[in-house]
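Fig. S4 source data, part A: sequence.
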Amino acid sequence: MSLTAPLAAAQSERIIDALAQATDEAMGLGVFGSPTFVVDGEVFWGDDRLEDALLWAEGK
């Protein structure tokens, strides 16, 4: 399997712009690491917080 096409796509202007936009949005939400989950404006950070994020989404 050649990696030429995926690497070229990752370096395209469209992907670079999308990454910059996603990064700006994440910073605006207070994201500082991964994984981060944002549910109804509430930020949950870390894989050990997934259950909390799901409960929050369910309104519990």
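Fig. S4 source data, part B ends here. The mean pLDDT is 92.
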